[in-house]
Amino acid sequence: MASESAEQFVKIINKPLKSKNPLVIVGFPGIGLVGNITSQHIIEELGMKYMGSIDSRYFPPLAVLFNGMVYLPVRIYEAAEKEVVIVISDIPIHPTASYDISKVLTDWMQSINANNIVSIAGIATTTGERRVFGGATSKELLEKIKDKTEIFQVGTISGISGSIMTECYLRGLPAVSLLGETPGPNPDPRAAVEVLKALNKIFELDIDTDKLLSQAEQIELELSKLAEQVKTTETPALPRKEFPMYG
Description:
Blueprint: E1 10-14, E2 23-27, H1 34-46, E3 49-56, E4 64-66, E5 69-71, E6 74-79, E7 84-89, H2 95-111, E8 116-124, E9 132-136, H3 139-145, E10 150-151, H4 159-171, E11 175-182, H5 189-203, H6 210-233
Parallel strand pairs: 2-7, 2-8, 8-11, 9-10
Antiparallel strand pairs: 1-3, 3-6, 4-5, 6-7, 9-11
Helix pairs in contact: 1-5, 2-4, 5-6
């Protein structure tokens, strides 16, 4: 029996790109939705053009609607004049699918002559800060980001973001991981703002962050109001024992 290849499970369907050596930014769902929020904001700010999608039998059976139009949940956008390409996903990728998807995606990024690859994700801490941790696949890139991020000294990058970085390292491709610090699982535009600032510094982009920052303040206000409403309506609960959480 012939062995099945990753390409049989994952397909990339896109129009020809105009970018010659693009910066490719990848944002998949994760803690704080940092990758999604950052990528979506760049798409809107640069007025990026929809160029295609990634389809896979690993994905759940669903379609995404934008203003009545049907799209696949993992999409590709391009700003040709800026030489920027974005891969953004509305669905989480199951760990068992990460290897095949990252392999096919990295094949594709090589085929379009990606100049640099950036994998964006979130990292949960209890510090209350919004730092951006960075890692890279080469010493040259690490030198480039060391003054713009907190270098991630020891740890792991899980999920599809980590799988993409591993695949890039094995192939000798220039890739950077940017991890936005966030206090928890809630959508965190403020963490995305800090990632955008780091991106601007590292790759000399000029993505405005004011709109996203104002959205962050509005989201925080709404969450605060919701928490207050819950507090005034909930019944007293029995004392519970708190355990530390590591992640």
